[in-house]
Amino acid sequence: MRRVRDRIDRDYAQPLDVEALARGVHMSAGHLSRQFRAAFGESPYSYLMTRRIERAMTLLRRGDLSVTDVCFAVGCSSLGTFSTRFSELVGISPSDYRRIAVGDAAGLPSCLAKQVMRPIRNREATPTRTHLASQA
């Protein structure tokens, strides 16, 4: 399962699906999904989208790319799906995040910004996200 997770981490911007990941480790897609969920607590697709959203957050904080450019840069093929998933994980839309986070992350070392600004599953709120959402 680590090989699958490592491939997702490495190739998140490439077109990946569960079937392709499963072929890479000689499993059926269903078996891979069950094993991945048992090992990491979420489906391979969910893990992939979280990685993509994390990278999107970094690109949006830079402020030099449009939301559409970021969507395609992280491997998403649908702006609507990207925006919906981003809003679910982060709590605000990508455009609001871009507008707000450029100032909030200014001056933070990238390693600290990544930890503080990381998307959280199950809509758990942290002071930073509460702060970001209240400014939206």
CATH topology term of the largest domain: Arc Repressor Mutant, subunit A
SSE series = HHHHHHHHH
- Shape by Cα distribution: elongated
Oligomer class: single chain
Q: Helical region count?
A: 9
| Number of self-contained structural domains | 2
Distance between the termini: 38 Å
The number of E-state strands comes to 0
The CATH class designation of the largest domain is Mainly Alpha
CATH architecture of the largest domain: Orthogonal Bundle
| Rg computed from alpha carbons, rounded to a whole number of angstroms | 15 Å
Uncertain stretches of 5 or more adjacent residues: 122-131
Task: Classify the helix fraction into a percent range.
Answer: 55-70%
> What share of the residues does DSSP label as strand, in percent?
under 5%
Please identify the structural class as seen in this structure: mainly alpha
Keywords: DNA-binding, Transcription, Transcription regulation
GO molecular function, one term: DNA-binding transcription factor activity
Domain HTH araC/xylS-type: 2-100
InterPro entries: AraC_XylS_family_regulators, Homeodomain-like_sf, HTH_AraC
List keywords for this structure.
transcription; 136 residues; mainly alpha; HTH_AraC; Arc Repressor Mutant, subunit A; Homeodomain-like_sf
